[in-house]
Write a structure and sequence with these properties.
Rossmann fold; about 40% helix; alpha/beta; 2 domains; 6-stranded mixed sheet
């Protein structure tokens, strides 16, 4: 546990004085003389003397909770997952046909994606972006798992690996009002001539960068088996995601040492996984990097990401909780005082 205002912890030094003050007040009241004809009622009354100390004890605990709350305590607390949208960005380049991950990288990735959907809470929208030489939205974010499943099964492979373009397209889907133009980033600014449709578009909202990983409304899960060969620079795209607070969890699939394999038509496919860049993408955005060399590892990684998105551990301020505990203790003390003694004291 940490404290946002630790200087207020000095107030806790007042706590030991309160019991001493209470004892002093009890002694100050003196000892009244009572004449009784029988000691039985007196003994029963004496046996219940502990009751009068219970309400003050509860008040003392309430005061301690309030003083602790004034220091604004912060602790890691497991909370329900707050994100509402998860975008899967899947590599569909021709190298995904390689069989070093059985039965093929592509089939293993599709099976793992299905497992991920099964683990993910049903109230989270899921979308699919596929990328090879270019990136495209295969399925917009939706709660309809059948639509996402059909889009995953309908994947067709192409040449090239535009990792950065896939990230930019995901950001364009998540922030439609940021005017992110993938075409302009790939081919330069458009001409000054604008269509009638462009005139009807609202101007982009002012964009203020936020802390990496601070955007809780979305996450991107990127799966690739190679390195960027075309499109937007991968780290440039990662920095765009970091500025918007979007976490990118990266899954690297296949070999890391690099070798050549024969593709369709005798074309060689470069298979080396650019692990340093992918790790940097995860680091810049506050996400995680996982390497999956087998179908089993890939499936376990996806299942782990899916199940962990149901709850998350976040640093949470406990001031309101402390105030609530103090209020309950005060109410309990007052209620017991009223019940036992007929007055609140």
């Amino acid at each position: 546990m940490s404290f946002l205002w630790p200087q207020n912890l000095w107030l806790l030094l007042a706590l030991p004085w309160l019991p001493l003050l209470y004892l002093w007040l009890l002694r100050r009241r003196g000892k009244p003389v009572l004449r009784v004809s029988s000691v039985g009622p007196l003994r029963r009354a004496a046996s219940r003397q502990w009751r009068r100390h219970v309400p003050p004890l509860l008040y003392l605990l309430a005061f301690a909770a309030l003083l602790l709350g004034m220091a604004r305590p912060v602790a890691p607390v497991k909370l329900p997952w707050a994100r509402t949208t998860v975008l899967l960005a899947m590599d569909v380049s021709l190298s995904m046909r390689v069989r070093d991950v059985e039965p093929t990288r592509m089939v293993a990735a599709q099976a793992a994606a299905h497992s991920f959907l099964n683990e993910l809470p049903k109230n989270i929208d899921v979308g699919l972006v596929t990328f090879a030489g270019s990136a495209q939205v295969a399925q917009q974010a939706t709660l309809d798992r059948l639509s996402v499943t059909a889009a995953i099964d309908a994947i067709q492979m192409q040449m090239g690996t535009a990792v950065g373009s896939a990230i930019v397209l995901c950001l364009a889907e998540l922030f439609p009002d940021h005017d992110i133009d993938l075409t302009e980033m790939n081919f330069g600014p458009r001409s000054q001539a604008r269509s009638l449709d462009d005139k009807d578009k609202l101007p982009p909202k002012p964009f203020t960068p936020v802390a990496p990983g601070s955007y809780d409304a979305a996450a991107i899960i990127l799966l690739t088996d190679g390195r960027r060969t075309t499109g937007v620079d991968t780290l440039q795209a990662a920095r765009m995601a970091a500025e918007r607070g979007v976490r990118i969890h990266v899954v690297g699939l296949g070999t890391t040492d690099g070798h050549l394999a024969q593709g369709e038509g005798g074309m060689a496919i470069y298979l080396q996984l650019d692990e340093p860049t992918l790790r940097e993408v995860a680091r810049l955005t506050g996400g995680e990097y996982h390497h999956a060399a087998t179908a089993e590892v890939l499936r376990s990684v996806y299942q782990s990401l899916g199940s962990r998105m149901q709850v998350q551990t976040r640093d949470t301020e406990l001031t309101a909780l402390m105030a609530g505990v103090a209020a309950l203790l005060i109410v309990a003390g007052a209620s017991l005082s009223l019940l036992w003694f007929g007055r609140i004291g």
